[in-house]
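Training component of the fellowship. As part of building independent skills, the fellow (R.M.) carried out the full modelling exercise for a liganded target. The chosen ligand was oxidized coenzyme A. The inputs are recorded below so that the supervisory panel can assess the work.
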Amino acid sequence: MPDIGDYKGVPVIEVLVAPGDVVREEQSLVTLESDKATMDVPSPFGGVVREIKLRVGDAVSEGSVILLMEPHGALAEVVTSEAASRASCGLHDRPHIVNELPEPAARPSTPGLAAVIAEKDAGLGGSSHASPSVRKLARDLGVDVARVTGTGPKGRITQDDVTAFVKGVMADQLAAPAGAAAAPAAGGSGLNLLPWPKVDFTKFGPIDTQPLSRMKKISGANLHRNWVMIPHVTNNDEADITDLEALRVQLNKENEKAGVKFTMLAFVIKAVISALKKFPTFNASLDGDNLVFKQYYHIGFAADTPNGLVVPVIRDSDKKGLVHIAKEMAELSKLAREGKLKPDQMQGGCFSISSLGGIGGTHFTPIINAPEVAILGLSKSAMKPVWDGKQFVPRLMLPLSLSWDHRVIDGAEAGRFNAYLATILTDYRRVSL
Ligand code: CAO
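Fellow's submitted model of the complex:
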């Protein structure tokens, strides 16, 4: 371990190489994390790793032995004796202090995501300069950091590099003909994509730049991961809610004095529970190669707030009546708008519903709220002429948009889920079946 300044007994949080690895000069060997900074310790020369002498969790100081390495190549031999002795005497340059500030993104290399994951699985990805937080982001997005081009100092990989890489892969896959993998260009870098446009908007007119709210940043990162990681498909359908709407209006009149307002969403939550009971795969989550079927029914609903999107959860919705659900939804929506929701009021959801019915639109593609496997979008109901076999009759139709994870659910099942849900909404007596 070279000179690491005033730090002593710093924990190793990641060992970045393994015995047998061929290591370049300056390649990171281990990552340390003190309470102030993370540091990657670079190799003083290139060679082959023979033995690792420390483990994650070990506390190290200057002079601790990291690993034994056999230098290789004529050039390496020339520099080895000096560099090795400097390293073992603790006289090497200080390790890189990882700078967590965002750095400009450059054009990423863009092989297909599947190829990247396959390489990762096959253990072919080498080690690269990246901080633990960047490595974590890459892991979360299923990206092998060894395939990402670093644009930071000394080729260090930044968060922007990882996200630019993912965007590049997505763009490649969209640009590739259906069913074909993205065609790699020379050097295996995929299509020649342009970098993310960096525009000086002031050249075109006055602007006002404002930072994203904290909530938008958090929900944005989740939405981005879910959109990139989950193979989404959306089935659109319509439910005839003419009779249900009449019931809702009547119940609202009857309960006016009690201050309870039944919204369409409350009815849909109860109907969705019936559908989840009939199609349990929609109430499941992927855990590696296992599917976890939940025996409880916690339903999340997307709430629009001044600071961004949140998804409060109505726990045990199957055990609650309509009045209870309507009241709880109103309370949670109020807390959401005031920014007062507690973390546990947004956790544990099994299935989410996003209603734009009060706003408008005909259909949309809701993004699945991982680790859930499906989400239902509701749009604005409208009177439509519906053929009853003899004539067109005016019926109030509610648009349903069901997005589902194609790793878990297939199209036929999703079609049946929507059809069943529509049947219940059309004849609400069936909700308790
Ligand atoms: N069709 C027609 N009208 C509808 C409707 C539908 N599907 N759903 C609701 N409405 C009507 C309601 O009846 C109500 O009208 P009245 O006041 O005349 O009764 C009005 O629209 C407003 O409803 P609401 O929005 O107050 O109540 P809600 O239960 O429909 O929704 C909530 C509650 C929290 C889901 C909603 O306020 C909200 O935040 N929606 C946005 C969700 C969102 O942003 N989703 C997108 C996520 S992806 O970015």
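The panel noted the following from the submitted structure. The pocket of oxidized coenzyme A is lined by residues 263-265, 301-304, 309, 333, 354-358, 366, 378, 380-381, 398 (CB under 6 Å). Residues 220-432 form a domain with the Chloramphenicol Acetyltransferase fold (CATH 3.30.559.10).
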